[in-house]
């Protein structure tokens, strides 16, 4: 399951969470984002112990600017509310799974 994260619920869904949050910064008009979307959804549906969320950059420009998102898709992994890794562009599911494993405790 993926959570829609926005400027209103960001603190609750990301900053105040213990553990890992994988956040996909995307836009509906972005072709590469549409390719990456199902990969992110699958991770959200199948990987235990990580919260997976999506941030629409058009609707949440403050969050995009706060984390320096210049190109989409950009995926940021947070641990205990702090960003620890950032991946820009479409990547294989295994890349994200390896990141999650790297920071799992």
Question: Summarize this, please?
Answer:
This protein has about 100 residues and is α/β, with parallel strands linked by helices. The chain has four helices and five strands, in the order E-H-E-H-E-H-E-E-H.
Question: What are its keywords?
Answer:
105 residues; alpha/beta; Glutaredoxin; 5-stranded mixed beta sheet; globular; Thioredoxin; Thioredoxin_domain
Describe the main β-sheet briefly.
5 strands, mixed
Architecture per CATH nomenclature, i.e. the level-2 architecture: 3-Layer(aba) Sandwich
Principal-axis shape = globular
The average pLDDT value, as a whole number, equals 96
Number of strands: 5
Domains, number = 1
Structural class: alpha/beta
Percent in strands: 25-35%
CATH class: Alpha Beta
**Residues in helix, %:** 25-40%
Q: What is Rg?
A: 12 Å
Order of helices and strands: EHEHEHEEH
Number of alpha- plus pi-helical segments? 4
Q: In CATH terms, what is the fold-level topology? A: Glutaredoxin
Give me the CATH superfamily. Glutaredoxin
Biggest sheet strand order reads 1-3-2-4-5
Question: Spans of 5+ residues with little confidence (pLDDT < 50)?
Answer: none
Terminal CA distance reads 21 Å
GO molecular function: protein-disulfide reductase activity
Site (Deprotonates C-terminal active site Cys): 24
Keywords: Disulfide bond, Electron transport, Redox-active center, Transport
Active site: 30 (nucleophile), 33 (nucleophile)
3D architecture notes:
The chain is an alpha/beta fold and 105 residues long. The protein has four helices and five strands; from the N terminus they run βαβαβαββα. A five-stranded mixed β-sheet has the order 1-3-2-4-5. The longest helix has 16 residues, at 31-46. It is globular, with a radius of gyration of 12 Å. The mean pLDDT is 96.
